[in-house]
Amino acid sequence: MATYKDIHGSKIQNLSSDPPAPFDGQFWYNSTSGDLKAKASSQVAAWSTGGALNTARALFAGGGTSTAALGFGGEPVGYTESYNGSNWTSVNSMNTARVTLAGAGASNTAALGFGGYNPPGSALNNTETWNGSNWTEVNNLNTSRNYLAGDGTNTSALAFGGSPSPGNNTSATESWNGTNWTSVNSLNTGRWVLAGAGASNTAALAFGGGSPNPTAVAVTELWNGSNWTETTDLNTARRYINGSGTSTSALAYGGSPYTAITESWNGSSWTEISDLGTARYGMGTAGTSNTSALAFGGFGGQSLTEEYAVGPVAGVVTIDAS
């Protein structure tokens, strides 16, 4: 078996104190403390606690980034809050109060909310745009539904899946051009309580959900602007799942039954990574890639916000040689 010297050309140094400027990957033994140490150069990914929502809720929508996000709708219904990277601020409510809607948006100043329902009513097709101050009602979805998924921005979005009536699910997909919704080719697997990720109406990712109710699925599909194609499944099938990112760099997290499982999508496969700090489902979400995300509210953590980030391990680490 090769030794450290065989691989690196030198033995591990025996020093009385830590070197003043170690290079990445350098190992040494500190004879004073009795510790084997190294200068870390790897990356660490983790969820951490952010500012709490002002109104605890679940089954709502979100959009934006981890430092400029919007949460809207939900139970209790109607409220909108804006996140600046540290704190949530209550802003003007939606015109049509509702739960189980979908959202799209690139920041906390421009967003789109669509679908959902206002208990105890039936599924809605209402669509509203957010300009940073107020919600404005615009042209409706062609298919009324709740528990649907969405992605994109307030001028280029996609709506897919959902439940048009109790006990049923749909594969219907619609594309938003900033003015109107147009029905386009359907998902291969009709389902509801699924999640989506994507930056526009020409590239999207749909994953998880229930089909038929209440069976959870791990199905993942890619949208290329014209058609959906089935691709690599999630590692863990989940309903009421949440997600964020793009069609090539996404995160999937939470789900029912209560879970903290988080998976990262690299454009071709899912990899399980660091779990949420609190297991939950029915959250609002924001984020633009698999390295940065925001998860807020939901059943199991109604006012809790968690921020996901990837960064380098700082400084010198002590190695447990036991």
List the helices and strands and how they pair.
Blueprint lengths: L3 H5 L4 E3 L11 E4 L4 E5 L3 E7 L11 E4 L4 E4 L7 E4 L4 E4 L10 E4 L5 E4 L12 E4 L4 E4 L10 E4 L4 E4 L12 E4 L4 E4 L10 E3 L6 E4 L12 E4 L4 E4 L10 E4 L4 E4 L8 E4 L4 E4 L10 E6 L2 E5 L8 E8 L3 E4 L3
Parallel strand pairs: 1-2
Antiparallel strand pairs: 2-3, 3-28, 4-27, 5-6, 6-7, 7-8, 9-10, 10-11, 11-12, 13-14, 14-15, 15-16, 17-18, 18-19, 19-20, 21-22, 22-23, 23-24, 25-26, 26-27
What features would you describe in this structure?
The structure is a single chain. The strands form seven sheets. A four-stranded mixed beta sheet has the order 1-2-3-28, with no helix packed on it. The protein has a four-stranded antiparallel beta sheet with strand order 4-27-26-25, with no helix packed on it. It folds into two domains: 4-39, no CATH class; 44-310, Kelch-type beta propeller (Neuraminidase, 6 Propeller). The chain contains one helix and 28 strands. It has one helix at 4-8; strands at 13-15, 27-30, 35-39, 43-49, 61-64, 69-72, 80-83, 88-91, 102-105, 111-114, 127-130, 135-138, 149-152, 157-160, 173-176, 181-184, 195-197, 204-207, 220-223, 228-231, 242-245, 250-253, 262-265, 270-273, 284-289, 292-296, 305-312, 316-319. 48% of the residues are buried. It is mostly beta strands. The model has no long low-confidence stretch (mean pLDDT 91).
